[in-house]
Hints:
Blueprint: H1 2-23, H2 27-58, H3 61-70, H4 76-81, H5 84-100, H6 104-110, H7 121-152, H8 155-161, H9 165-183, H10 192-199, H11 206-233, H12 235-248, H13 254-281, H14 283-292, H15 301-319, H16 322-338
Helix pairs in contact: 1-2, 1-7, 1-9, 2-5, 2-7, 5-7, 7-12, 9-13, 11-12, 11-15, 11-16, 13-14, 13-15, 13-16, 14-15, 15-16
Amino acid sequence: MNAIAxxxxxxPFLLPxxxxxxxxxxRSVRLFAYxxxxxxxxxxxxxxxxxxxxxxxxxxxxxxxQLAEQNPGLxxxxxxxxxxxxxxxxxxxxAIVAIVVLLPQIRSLLARVLPIDAGSAVHxxxxxxxxxxxxxxxxxxxxxxxxxxxxxxxxxxSGQLQQSYLDVLVFPLLTLVIAALLxxxxxxxxxxxxTLQRLGLTLPNLxxxxxxxxxxxxxxxxxxxxxxxxxxxxxxxxKEVGGVLKVMTGNLNGVPGALAIGLSAAxxxxxxxxxxxxPRMGLPLxxxxxxxxxxxxxxxxxxxxxxxxxxxxxxxxxRTSLTVCIMVHFLFNFVSVLLP
Length: 340
């Protein structure tokens, strides 16, 4: 059911990408895509408003105590950390920005610092959905991650959170690859050969394989050092994130699990973030968006680690190819899953 729910939830966000590509040639479709984005972000802003209201209610100690009694796996401290008020403000802000960037004048200003075409419907949609994605992801980090951390240590609840192989294949592999292919206009603006060229998918040579191995070793070393420092300054949050990862990968053990997680994340995330997104939106924005999608880490050093990994992969994309990025991402995830 998680896989099916993921696909259904992603459909409203895949549709404007398709419409924008068609809209590059059909003015009426372009207008419809912009109207759709305004309505979609209007809904997100409304959700943010209700979150603000809920956050005000949770500021009442009596409400917190009642919720804690109804949910034994959640304690008052965790509920208090779920800042629905801040999450609501973030969602409202980024939803408004997502609408504002659709204005031609704003896109013309952004084109001075981003490698975009201010007149492109696809690039306008990418800007709008980037802002919406930041709002949704930061909303989850502020409001949902603390509750998820609490649920992960509750055995009865955590069993319901574990992923299956189908869940891993659907997201990030299936949905992100579809988003990437739609974004570059496969069979709409580009044929297969042009699509592969636009994404940067090429056969690696021995030099690139060596670069991939060296980059992976460096990132694994940096990850180890990050955990050492993290353990020293905040062992509790490290334990919480470790519990979350254990829950999420509980059904994906050993080499098969490492292969599934490694391949799905590497192919899906790299095809979208480094293949389709970065060449048009730039490395900094791609790395930040990539980090924000890892909402399971909340506001912790793990998110900073993902940001650094995204930046390194971005540089590799610029200097080598998407294939090298996929290799590094796969090897990093594969080793990280096998080694606790």
